[in-house]
Amino acid sequence: MYNSRKVRYISSPEFGKIEVPKKTAQSNNIKELAKIQKEKDEWSKYMNPGGFKPTITSHFRKPQNEIDFLNHEMVLIRSPKDCGQEWASFRLSPFLSKPEIKQYLMKVYNLNVKSINTANFMGRIVRDQEKAGYFRKTDKKKAMVKLDFKVDPELQKHI
Prior knowledge:
By secondary structure, the protein is α+β, with helices and mostly antiparallel strands. The chain folds into two domains: 1-59, no CATH class; 74-156, Alpha-Beta Plaits (2-Layer Sandwich). Helices cover 21% and strands 30% of the residues. It is built from three helices and eight strands, in the order E-E-H-E-E-H-E-E-E-E-H. The chain has a four-stranded antiparallel β-sheet, covered by helices on one side. Strands 1-2 form a two-stranded antiparallel ribbon. A two-stranded antiparallel ribbon has the order 6-7. A hairpin with a 3-residue loop joins strand 1 (7-12) and strand 2. The chain starts with 6 loop residues before the first strand and ends with a helix. This is Large ribosomal subunit protein uL23m. InterPro entries: Nucleotide-bd_a/b_plait_sf (IPR012677), Ribosomal_uL23-like (IPR013025), Ribosomal_uL23/eL15/eS24_sf (IPR012678). Belongs to the universal ribosomal protein uL23 family. One of its GO terms (biological process) is mitochondrial translation.
């Protein structure tokens, strides 16, 4: 691969065209450079039998890797209040945003979501009897999701 920033070429009638790194050349002797080039060619034949060399097509940054599957739990809960038959309540990770919740429900569970309302709850402060101190339980998030169909009333009622 020709890259004028990193490589310079030396040609001699005896050995032909030799590829040498610009910054760090191991030797100035043409015979040693030719030997190194020959070893490099043999290695590239073994590692790349098709002879295809990669080319630099762009100097732009590569896009970040997409997350294929979110590793967050989403639990259907019963609401203490009557919200209507189109609404369902979920307890989920506080790190999920509304678009992520919508995409999660639409792609994983094939639910058509009309709207989402969310509420964040801080964890309670609890006294630890063993260590004689206090700690905070984990934070929670509740999502009220409006669907395009009626939800079974048994799933909505709080018992």
